[in-house]
Design goal:
The chain has 149 residues and is of the alpha+beta class. The chain has one domain: Orthogonal Bundle (Arc Repressor Mutant, subunit A). Helices cover 29% and strands 19% of the residues. The strands form 2 sheets. A 3-stranded antiparallel β-sheet has the order 1-3-2. Helix 1 crosses helix 2 (29-39) and helix 3 (48-57) packs across helix 4. The longest helix is centred in the middle third of the chain and has 13 residues, at 64-76. The chain is globular, with a radius of gyration of 19 Å.
Length: 149
């Protein structure tokens, strides 16, 4: 009788490494560390500043410029989606499926809206030589502070 060996636990950076290799990005120490923070634990929305703070909390020494560069590289490689909510204010979304967002203006929270929950009747004709690559809808909300529970 052959005994099965217990399943080996996955290495801490295995998911980040797999994603980087699939996106053909070199797995540098910073990319692996930031990728682990981003992709372990489900879908989320982060700003560069949030991720920089989170990295510092985990003892990861990385500059804010490196965080911005990494987020932009991950976005260009298709690992993240950038959600621009105002000029100079972007979130990076680990959920790269077709979906939209609620943006709470009071506190800056971002929440997913399923892609099929919004229907567009039509789009304007695109300029010559251009084609639509994606439609992002951001529904802006204000929390009602006057509600009583």
């Amino acid at each position: 009788m052959v005994e099965k060996s217990p399943a080996r636990p996955e290495r801490p950076f295995a998911d980040a490494l797999r994603r980087l290799k699939k996106a053909e990005l070199r797995p540098t120490r910073q990319r692996l560390a930031l990728g682990k923070l981003l992709f372990d634990g489900g879908d989320r929305h982060v700003t560069a500043e949030n991720l920089h703070d989170e990295a510092a909390d985990h003892g990861i020494r990385v500059s804010l410029a490196t965080v911005y560069n990494t987020l932009n590289q991950f976005t260009a490689a298709g690992l993240l989606r950038e959600v621009v909510v105002a000029p100079g204010r972007s979130y990076f979304d680990t959920n790269i499926t077709d979906h939209h967002h609620f943006f709470y203006e009071n506190d800056g929270a971002l929440e997913d809206i399923p892609g099929d929950a919004i229907t567009l009747a039509s789009l304007p004709e695109t300029p010559s030589g251009a084609q639509v690559s994606r439609v992002d809808v951001v529904v802006r909300l204000r929390r009602d502070d006057s509600r009583s529970d």
